[in-house]
Amino acid sequence: MPGIFTSSRQSRRRFLRGAVQSAACITYWPLHAATTDKAEATSRRWALLADTHLAANRDEVYRGSYPYKNLTSIVPSIKETAPSGALIVGDVARHDGRVADYELLKSVTKPLASEVPIFLGLGNHDHRPRFRQVFPQSPDSGVRQALTEKHVVVIDQAPIVRIVLLDSLRRVNGGAGELGAAQRTWLQGFLSKPKDDVPVVIAVHHTFGSGGGHLQDTTQFFQMIDDAPQVKAVLYGHSHRFQFSRRKGLHLINLPPVGYAFDHAQPLGWLDTEFHASGAKLTLKTVDPKSPRSSETKELDWR
Asked: At what angle do helices 218-225 and 181-192 cross, to 10 degrees?
């Protein structure tokens, strides 16, 4: 399931007031922080991550990278930006989602979670039951809508942005992903209901296409969002690449990996992101601060 990890008392109280969960449900998290800062009132800052691939073995090296060292090195810099929240779009664990992997993630990110909520999505290297042992469900009994084996988080920061975190985990340690009929039905209903004009950003782990390693219901997914004007961008990981593309004016943002890259020319890191009502500014923060791509910035205008 996509999880929410927070260890601060303030965030915990906000969670118990605003979030709704059950064994399989839509989780709704309103983040309406009061502020007197005009800049904060017109934008929201987020830390966007993907593919941390953390293993219980802190010394594990894969493709020349050390996922544990990479993650521990960026947590302080994320915290320094004072974001509204942090989002990891899946493949949180290294291989097949061991309990010890998630325990280590919880320990490493605790300093950040003491300040802001961390939203965790699941990728093909994650494992739902083991994940739940470490990030258990809230005792809150409110249920918005049940989904079979799929979980969705809606993070509401109206009027600036509304982030929808989807679940594309299909099979543990299998490459392909899938939203599934029930989740697609929910998304269709969510997007078709009359509501405000708050920009919607969708986050999902898998890449898009017809091949075996992509989201298997890519066609159905885009049929829903291509003509949904409130959807402005899609965040995803899985490919271990950092790139931007567009589809019918919709921004597709492939987040850089934290754990390791398939191609060593690709940067490792996270995106320091400022959402505003008409677009977003994304700044690459590399694991290696000396990387020539460090602080590379991209500004997007919403369709």
From this structure: 10
**Rounded Cα–Cα distance for residues 243 and 255 (Å):** 7
Q: Chain centroid to CA 251: how far?
A: 16
- pLDDT tens for 146-161 read 565 777 888 989 999 9
- What amino acid is encoded at 217 in this protein? D
- At 26, give phi and psi (nearest 5°): -85, 130
Q: What is the pLDDT of residues 227-271, one digit of tens each?
A: 999 999 999 999 999 999 999 999 999 999 999 999 999 999 999
Q: How many domains does the chain fold into?
A: 1
Distance, C-alpha 213 to centroid of its chain: 19
Q: Which domain holds residue 112?
A: 3-301
What letter would DSSP give residue 92? -
Higher pLDDT, 154 or 283: 283
**26: which DSSP letter?**
E
We report the CATH number of the domain holding residue 33 as 3.60.21.10
What's this model's pTM, rounded to 2 decimal places?
Answer: 0.89
**Which residues face 297 on adjacent strands?**
283
What is the H or E stretch that residue 222 is in? helix 218-225
* C-alpha pair distances (Å), 104 with each of 85, 109, 154: 20, 9, 26
Q: For residue 159, give Cα distances in angstroms to 49, 212, 301.
A: 23, 38, 16
Contact status, residue 168 vs residue 178, Cβ threshold 8 Å? yes
Pairing of strands 85-89, 118-121: parallel
Distance CA 211, CA 214 (A): 6
Other CB atoms closer than 10 Å to residue 177's CB: what's the count?
Answer: 29
